[in-house]
Amino acid sequence: MRTSPTGGKDQAVARAPACGANAAAGPHDEGPAPGTGPGGAGEGPPTARTSLPGDARAPSAARRFVRSVLAGWNAHDLVTDDATLLVSELVTNAVVHAGTSVDLECRLDPARGGNLVVEVTDHHPTREFRARPRRGRGEREGSAHGGRGLRLVAELAETWGTAYRRTDKTVWFHLPTCPGQDAPGAPVREPVLLCDPGDLGDPGLAEVFAPGPRPAPPARRAAERGHHRALSFLAEASELLAGQFDEDMVASLAAQLAVPRLADWCAVWLDTDGSPGTVRPAPRLSCVWHAREHRVEPLRLALLRTPPALPAAGRSVPWPYGPDGGTALACRLVAGGRGVGTLLLGRAGPSAVAGDVSALAEDFARRVARALVSARQYTRQATISRILQRGLLPRGVAVIPGVEAAVVYEPRGDASAGGDFYDVFAAGGGRWCFALGDVCGSGPEAAVTTGLVRPWLRLLAKEGYGVTDVLDRLNRMLGEEAAEAEAGSGPRFLSLLYGELVPHGGGVRCTLASAGHPLPLLLRPDGSVRPVAAPQMLLGVVDEVGYGSETFDLAPGETLLCVTDGVTERKSGGRLLDDGDGLAAVLAGCAGLTAEGVAARVRHAVHGFAPGPPDDDLALLVLRAK
Predict the structure, then answer these.
(1) How confident is the model at residue 225 (pLDDT cuts 50, 70, 90)?
(2) 76-80 long-range contacts, CB within 8 A, separation 24+
(3) What is the C-alpha separation between 82 and 105, in angstroms, rounded?
(4) Which CATH superfamily is 394-625 part of?
């Protein structure tokens, strides 16, 4: 966590009163404090504050507020564009993740050469802003829900950070008011994105990047600076687009990078894959962005009526945009010889787009295309993995007469299924069987073993084999499978807790065995806890073992807790959760709870044992006799 840039940051900052009924029309703008605006005679730097409602209107109101304030302060166009983009993302993050009203402050800091300082404050200090993208279904362009706000801040701002207080939380950032200069006396650095159109040499290039007259430096210096800024823009675009795992997020980010630095508006179509032998579906309009927000929806409707013809691969072609008489460049998005979409960059002016702009647009489009291909590959692999791994888990837990059952299953990371597995199924003849296992290893090898073991268990149980016979045969099967496996595939060891339940009038008869697995715990209604079963050899290690089992009655009100080592070996520093019978102590406090209540209590204890998330698969099965 970064600290505040000002000495008094931990003190509450005076804010404007919250917006009232007229908030939809725009924020309540305090404007610069009396006597503190540019040229004022009062003390303190120029400052403007506003409060925004905690709903979808806030980002739009924040953008209007920032542009209005910075226009009054005669800020550079690039500073205004960057500040507007960052404030929009941060306000959206605050509204979505914190759900409160938002305070926004802009001021000029004379101690840092007149830098622009912006603070976005929400009133929920216990929730951190998300810096890593994470989208929900249905989110589209312009959405900061994915958390790219802080990533943009980190890339565009000179300095930034967060400040937490008891009642609110602030994200702040600094932007140089003179792009390219960090501070008085500091060496000149190239700005992140393009600015100063007069420096770019070609008049057409200048017009697209930042319309408006500016004094031009000598031609040679202008050409060099224009070239460096173009390279800086492309490098920045590559960095921001890299690592995005969703193609709609890539399209949205690309559009916001392009507007207003490359064009007045931008649209991205994404190609849709069709089934072999069928007509290719029409491209999908994924994102539309305009420098003037109120024109986004009319532009979208106009583009849907007249989609662009696909240009040649990798080449930009002029495309007339009828509604406002402007022009545009259509550039096919191609990577690895395969088209993935079309990028459209448009402007309001009627003149033809300069060649330098076309070349830069094509270079930008290539970077967007590569990011889209990477996102699609990730999505495709994740989908295949999810479908395959879904088959490794049962579709549900069988209903056992006289028994409540509850399962917690949390694979490590983003996987749909891990090395742990569970099953509860009817075996016929008034018998129900349950299993909780942990495959030694991870990745595809572990998935293969899981895919073999669960069907084998079900088959053997339904053939009428008892608990010990099932383990003996499963052990031999794993040994035979390992002997036939390809060289270098590694051993297929398995820890397994397997049991059989037979309901009767006074409770449930339970027979179970543990093969190299954490021993199950039995909780009685009086809160006493004892382990059941005895430790035995892992499956797949030795061909002939001879497994034993234990049989007992699960009386009404008694609970059986079965876990994998992701529970017992949960780490906090040098301690494990089960050190000193820690798991038994947690279970003892669950007396009187339902199976779901016990599962939730144990899961909470596992997650709360250490500050970080579990670093292993987490699986537990709770069986409680009614």
Answers:
(1) low
(2) 76/177, 76/178, 76/179, 76/195, 77/195, 77/210, 77/212, 78/179, 78/191, 78/193, 78/194, 78/195, 78/196, 78/210, 79/116, 79/175, 79/176, 79/177, 79/179
(3) 15
(4) PPM-type phosphatase domain (3.60.40.10)
How confident is residue 8, by pLDDT bands cut at 50, 70 and 90? very low
Count of helix runs (H) and strand runs (E) in the chain: 13, 23
- Classify domain 222-387 by CATH architecture: 2-Layer Sandwich (3.30)
Cα separation, 262 vs 256, in Å, equals 10
- Token readout for 585 is 């102590």
Q: Which residue has the tokens 């009062």?
A: 42
Rg (CA), the chain: 32
Report the top-level CATH class of 27-38+46-184.
alpha beta
Q: What is the DSSP letter of 540?
A: T
Greater pLDDT, 71 or 43 = 71
pLDDT above 90 (res 163): no
**What are the start and end residues of each CATH 3.30.565.10 domain in the chain?**
27-38+46-184
* Chain segment 83-137, per-residue pLDDT in tens: 988 898 888 888 776 678 899 999 998 877 778 999 999 887 654 444 333 343 3
Please give the Cα distance from 411 to 392 (Å, whole number). 12
Question: Do you find a cis peptide bond into 614, omega within 30 degrees of 0?
Answer: no
**Per the structure block, which two tokens stand in for 287?**
């994102």
How far lies 316's CA from each of 193, 329, 355, 437, 480, in Å? 21, 6, 10, 57, 61
Task: Indicate the pTM of the whole model.
Answer: 0.52
Ranges assigned E (strand) in 481-535: 494-504, 507-515, 521-523, 529-531
- Can you state the angle between helices 149-156 and 77-93, rounded to 10 degrees? 150
Provide mean pLDDT across the span 525-554: 92
Please determine, for residue 352, whether its predicted confidence score (pLDDT) is greater than 70. Answer: no
Q: How confident is the model at residue 450 (pLDDT cuts 50, 70, 90)?
A: confident
